[in-house]
Design brief:
heterodimer, A: about 575 residues, mainly alpha, Cytochrome C Oxidase, Chain A, two-stranded antiparallel sheet, 16 helices, about 65% helix, globular, disordered C terminus, B: about 425 residues, disordered N terminus, binds protoporphyrin IX containing FE, binds copper (II) ion, metal-binding (chain A), transmembrane helix (chain A), Cyt_c_Oxase_su1_BS (chain A), heme binding (chain A)
Chain lengths: ~575, ~425
């Protein structure tokens, strides 16, 4: 064996190796244990959920086109509106955003980035996908039975008295919670026990750090949601008197329980997005990530601090003033690690050689939008201002800036970044970039006016409004239509690539993490033997080959064995 | 049992070569070494146990909060729980932890016969636990010691007939029948299981299927243990049951002093007139002091509000002007002492059923996985290198026991 360990271009996979084609037939997908196929099935699933949730969102916006309500008419209009915004929120949160990055992209990437053959528990992985499907079925059946009108937060006492299908929906969320727990558990174990030799914790790609931090939250917070929803179901069916004031329960307890999960849950949504952005910024700036350790540690810091701030959702629910002050102060501390990340990304881009690829366009949008979202969080975390802004459109705008402007944009960036790896096809860069621009513009058009609306006193979750708000609401609706077009455009770009995209090389962007060292798409076993691990952000030896139109590794020959003792190596082979 | 060794020999292959494609059957393809597989499983189960603890922690929090807000309710109501039965169940679970730990040891040392005995003993203990629990539950259901939505306990007539439940408490006939005959309903699934396993045993014997016979035999014992538990519970409950009620009568009749107030849920509350005036009253003043202490904490807005309401009430009673913003009529002050009513006692039982119910569900799940282990043990699946599943299930089982170790004093003992 030569001493060179250059990971040269692995070429293209044969049909027998390609994970997409190595076995065929519907059963080979339904019972697959391959993390890549499961990831892909998740991707299809969450995208479907996103489409449903998105259509509901458009319905909401269209209804708000007119102060008296435009979309739904008749005596039931307001009830329908309540159901539509509830289902929109519940579907987007539980079925789309929470599983989007960890379960779809994470499943595909975590083992490959680790150079492992699969996640630690492949069967558990498949079962969490099916749990997701079950949960989705419950949600859909809630939709078709008597709907749901509690808001995605299921606050008591309304949720114990409304005659809509609270039980079906909460059962759905309960099941989805377990799906999420199992995914998180799987990733923690995988990252702990299956790293290849040489990959120390601080040689892991930052996406893995982010996934690890996310998984910690999934494992520690989701069970509390589980028991909360279970108690809510018990409250509704047997009146156990824990949450329902009619039976001497305490509705504020419900809020504490709920937000003890749901605030950490917002970090389940955003942390993996941070991970994606760290990868994207570094790879497309062709520059070593700045402040690797800070980014890594800040993920963990966010995961842990995120458990201490849930009370900021309840400043107006009647907590004592001391409690609110403590929660407010803690809320501010969470923004520190988030800011650290933003600064590190900017420093990474500084003097990098930035390729403005589609994924990079999304990454830059992300930095911009997430910053706005995070900063407006501080207004909400401040007691005096939150008293005014709570339950207004300002909150709506805030969380859409972080969840859509943050997580969704990062998810899109990640999908565009790893699409060539997942399906082995390149998409049209020009159209990809146009779509990302439309998404950016449409998004700001939708949600920027909502900050103004909220600060002027427009309450959230109202089906009709004062005519003075009409202009801003209409602007928001037109923005939403543009956003919808942009997303559809992006989807078409991806689909078109399947039909007539160029075959993707192993390393289309010049990345240095391990997933770029195997073929696109990867073989079903990922790597024949554990790959050699280097610095995941060292791009010095990766160069653009303009003839072949792909990146190649020009790694100098490295010696396996130190020079001092050369005798033994050749003796073996 | 010992004659079955069809599966054991292949799994003995040791992977001395450390080669990728020479995995023994029990080593999953994506793991390189048995150690890696074992460590992954171990970390996985510990994480899972963490989620279980957090799952229960929600209920422990609810318990702590309501206990803090309404200490007298918890004191009054925990006396309805039969300490003897709880203690027996604690002992049974502790013993099952021992047999479970022993089972892990047997798997490591490849003592197959003993392994099967240990797993079967653990299973039997689990069944005894459920049997005793059925007695406890059915007894309380019959007395109407239920969550607030359906609570109907009446001290004058603690064991009403189905007809009385219908007439006096407005339940439907089928519900009333269920409540008074709940033990049969609880036993029915286990009786069916017993019959099923017995049929299986006979069938295995007739067809001379040694493996299935070896599986069915211990399972029959396991199913029988449930009824052993029921019997045990009956004996102890009949001795202790009346005593419990009497005990409550003596010590906590005071709780009934205001029986009439809060029970406005039923119109014909014939028993409200029942007087227990003779019973020693709870020390109302010392209770106020406690409330003041609680209200001193800025965190306890509930206690604060209660105190304010109370003070406002006294102020109004003596004709003073109440400052604006203070609600005299929160309804809390009046029902506070009224332990044995829907709204008060019901909450205790709501929490009691949630906690013990979810725990019982975990016992059932544990029974499921233990049966799976039992069958694998009879198949000789485990060996000194591969005993992970026994170990993991063992850890789970210890956690389920541990939770009970907390539930028992919190619900039954602390007064
Ligand atoms: C960066 C620091 C952040 C701070 C300081 C912050 C602060 C807050 C505060 C104080 C509220 C409550 C507003 C109210 O109801 O009056 C809130 C609401 C919300 N935040 Fe954030 N937030 C931050 C980041 C995030 C992130 C990253 C996400 C999600 C990815 C998120 C999602 C939400 C959601 C969904 C709500 C509204 C929940 C509801 O009432 O339906 N936030 N935020
Ligand atoms: Cu929050």
């Amino acid at each position: 064996m030569s001493t060179a360990i250059t990971s040269r271009d692995p070429g293209y996979p044969t049909d027998r190796e390609n994970y997409l084609t190595n076995s065929s037939g519907i059963l080979s997908w339904i019972f697959t244990l391959d993390h890549k196929r499961i990831g892909l099935m998740y991707l299809v699933g969450v995208m479907t959920a996103f489409a449903v949730g998105g259509l509901l969102a458009l319905a909401i916006r269209l209804h708000l086109l007119d102060p008296e309500g435009w979309m739904f008419t008749g005596a039931e209009a307001n009830n329908i509106y309540n159901q539509v915004f509830t289902l929109h929120g519940a579907i987007m949160v539980f079925l789309f955003i929470i599983p989007s990055i960890p379960a779809a992209l994470g499943n595909f990437l975590v083992p490959v980035m680790l150079g492992a053959k699969d996640v630690a528990f492949p069967r558990l992985n498949l079962s969490s996908f099916y749990l997701w499907c079950f949960g989705a079925i419950f949600f859909v059946s809630a939709l078709f039975s008597s709907g749901l009108d509690t808001g995605w937060t299921f606050y008591t006492p309304y949720s114990t008295t409304t005659d809509t299908s609270v039980i079906l929906a909460t059962l759905g969320a309960f099941i989805l919670g377990f799906s999420s727990i199992f995914t998180g558990l799987n990733f923690i174990v995988t990252i702990n026990t299956m790293r290849p030799p040489g990959m120390t914790w601080f040689k892991m790609p930052l996406f893995l750090w982010a996934t690890y931090a996310t998984s910690i939250i999934q494992v520690l917070a989701t069970p509390v949601l589980g028991i909360t929803l279970l108690l809510l179901i018990a409250e509704r069916t047997m009146h156990v008197g824990i949450f329902d004031p009619e039976f001497n329960g305490d509705p504020v307890t419900y809020q504490h329980f709920f937000w003890f999960y749901s605030h950490p849950a917002v970090y389940i949504m955003i942390l993996p997005a941070f991970g994606i952005i760290s990868e994207l910024i570094s790879v497309h700036s062709h520059k070593h990530i700045f402040g690797y350790r800070f980014i890594a540690y800040s993920s963990i810091a966010i995961a842990l601090l995120g458990f201490l701030v849930w009370g900021h959702h309840m400043f107006t629910s009647g907590m004592s003033s001391l409690t609110t002050i403590i929660f407010s102060a803690l809320t501010f501390t969470v923004s520190v690690p988030s800011a650290i990340k933003v600064f590190n990304w900017l420093a990474t881009m500084y003097k990098g050689s930035i390729s403005l690829t589609t994924p990079m366009c999304y990454a830059i949008s992300f930095i911009f939008l997430f910053t706005i979202g995070g900063l407006t969080g501080l207004f909400l975390g401040t007691l005096a201002t939150d008293l005014h802004l709570h339950d207004t459109y300002f909150v709506v705008a805030h969380f859409h800036y972080v969840m859509v402007g943050g997580t969704l944009i990062a998810f899109l960036g990640g999908v565009f970044h790893w699409w060539p790896k997942m399906v082995g096809k390149m998409y049209n860069e020009f159209h990809g970039r146009i779509a990302s621009l439309l998404v950016f513009l449409g998004f700001n058009g939708t949600f920027l006016p909502q900050f103004v609306l909220g600060s002027r006193g427009m309450p959230r979750r109202y089906a009709t409004y004062d005519p003075e708000f009409a202009f801003l609401h209409q602007m928001s609706t037109y923005g939403a239509l543009l956003l919808g077009c942009g997303l559809l455009y992006a989807f078409i770009v991806l689909m078109a690539s399947l039909a007539k995209g160029r075959r993707a090389p192993a390393n289309p962007w010049g990345g240095a993490t391990l997933e770029w060292a195997c073929t696109s798409p990867p073989p079903y076993y990922n790597f024949e033997r554990p790959p050699v691990v280097g610095d995941p952000y060292d791009f010095h030896n990766i160069e653009w080959d303009s003839q072949e139109e792909k990146y190649i590794s020009t790694e100098p020959e490295r010696k396996l064995v130190p020079e001092e003792q050369p005798a033994e190596v050749p003796a073996h082979h | 049992m010992a004659t079955i060794d069809s599966h054991s020999s292949e799994s003995e292959t040791h992977d001395e070569h450390g080669h990728d494609h020479d995995h023994p059957a029990w080593l999953a393809h994506h793991f390189d070494t048995p150690e890696q597989q074992f460590d992954s499983g171990k970390l996985g189960i510990w994480l899972f146990l963490t989620t279980e603890i957090l799952f229960f922690s929600g209920m422990f929090c609810a318990y702590a909060m309501f206990r803090m807000l309404r200490p007298e309710v918890f004191e009054g109501c925990s006396q309805f729980l039969n300490t003897k039965l709880g203690a027996i169940n604690t002992g049974v679970l502790l013993f099952s932890s021992l047999t479970m730990a022993w089972a892990v040891r047997c798997a490591q040392t490849e003592e197959y016969k003993k392994l099967v005995v240990m797993i079967a003993s653990t299973l039997s203990c689990a069944m005894v636990f459920l049997g005793v629990k059925s007695i406890e539950y059915s007894h309380k259901w019959g007395m109407g010691l239920l969550p607030p939505g359906s609570y109907f306990y009446d001290e004058a007539n603690p064991h009403p007939t189905a007809q009385q439940i219908v007439d006096q408490h407005g339940f439907s006939e089928s519900t009333a029948y269920f409540l008074t005959h709940s033990l049969y309903y609880l036993c029915a699934p286990f009786a069916l299981l017993l019959i099923g396993v017995f049929a299986w045993l006979v069938w295995a014997k007739v067809t001379d299927n040694k493996f299935q016979y070896a599986c069915a035999k211990p399972l029959l014992v396991v199913c029988l243990s449930f009824f052993g538990g029921v019997g045990l519970g009956m004996v102890l409950e009949s001795g202790g049951g009346e005593h419990t009620v009497a005990h409550v009568d003596g010590d906590h009749g005071a709780a009934d002093a205001g029986h009439g107030h809060a029970d406005h849920e039923h119109a014909e509350d014939a028993h409200a007139a029942e007087t227990h005036a003779a019973a020693p009253a709870l020390d109302v003043e010392s209770d106020d002091v406690a409330m003041e202490l609680l209200a001193e904490s800025d965190l306890n807005t509930g206690a604060k509000a209660m105190l304010e309401a109370k003070q406002a009430q006294t102020a109004m009673a003596s004709g003073q002007v109440v400052p604006p913003g203070v609600e005299a009529d929160m309804g809390i002050a009046t029902v506070e002492k009224d332990v044995q009513t829907k709204r008060q006692a019901g909450v205790f039982f709501g929490i009691y059923y949630c906690m013990t119910g979810v725990h019982a569900i975990h016992i059932l799940a544990g029974i499921g996985v233990l049966v799976w282990l039992l069958i694998r043990a009879i198949r000789h699946d485990f060996n000194r290198q591969y005993f992970g599943p026994v170990d993991y299930v063992g850890l789970y089982w210890h956690l389920v026991d541990l939770i009970w170790i907390y539930l028992f004093p919190l619900l039954y003992l602390i007064r």
